[in-house]
């Protein structure tokens, strides 16, 4: 077991000591893929709908597309994707779904179509041509078994009488089933199982009691172990959460050159194991940058129609949508926060490390991305959200000596607000819209960021 840990922990480090910059390979699978957590994605091509407006032109790609009312296998989240990640969908996407609980159809709901500014940076391996796809933001609809969708192109609102823009090619509806929550209980690695098998044999000979058949005991695959091992400087292998520490305890465990760290108390963080991430979905490598200078705050734009007990399922659904539907290497965000203020580990690589995400196009290097689950363009976030963002940033930024109340600079990798190579001056705690032109994280959440910066700095003792 110790030998296994030594190899899997190759990238683990004391929080502020060693910051890997290269891609790190995880071990090969130790158990069959059939043991992976359940979950599925249905991909349904959209078809032209009957033209219903003058000027609709099938050849020009301006005929509305969609799917008429139909049955589907169980799903809880949906989105629309298309072939070219550089293409934008200038139009509207509406869906309605049938609940498995009531059998009733929902009202029509709009999907956020301007989602292209959540992505890996140009020129990175994650953004290689042919690997990724364009997409709307996903929408959480709850357990459903029926769907209808319509996509309509729009003209330039600034030009009266402008012809509708062509819709992107290869439009498909993605229906995501997150699978069941992982069972509570202990976890073991495949290596530990072999030792336990020997113990089982001995127990059988002596008639001793054993819990090897306890259904609450689950096996860590090699991918599970690798994703957990990068947090081994904080918690044991297979832990479902990183427990909270007091400020004094956090300071005692944080080493910085030059003296006492300015850092907030470590918050409780639900690990990927805790929310049931299927580690066989993501790419095996972990990719790091040099440090964390900026925390970008996002909303997931998945809607607010979820309970906090469903947050694990929402997160598993977004993860699957990012990887299987959008073609990203892993979940795009480094962290997620639900509306009750619970904090979750996002992209694999270690919660204390400078993991490169795919959350803020052009600014994924030397930053971390925090997604608040929900949509906050018209709805106000609960008070617990701002408190959680402040707690998380006070700790995470403190590991890298960053002052939450200050400003800093990042070089743009290219986007719709800052050209490639531009040095942008940004708040250390910034909204997604500060780096690119987007509504994210929604006006109501964005308006809370000044309060978050002040609270985060206070938690650091500034």
From TrEMBL:
Organism domain of life: Bacteria
Domain N-acetylmuramoyl-L-alanine amidase residues, every copy: 281-442
UniProt keyword Signal, yes or no: yes
Pfam families, per the entry: Amidase_2
Biased composition (Basic and acidic residues): 118-131
Keywords associated with the record: Signal
Signal peptide: 1-25
Region (Disordered): 118-141, 157-215
UniProt domain Peptidoglycan recognition protein family: residue ranges: 267-415
Family: Belongs to the N-acetylmuramoyl-L-alanine amidase 2 family.
Full protein name: Peptidoglycan recognition protein
Organism whose genome encodes this protein: Streptomyces flavidovirens
Lineage, broadest ranks: Bacteria, Bacillati, Actinomycetota, Actinomycetes, Kitasatosporales
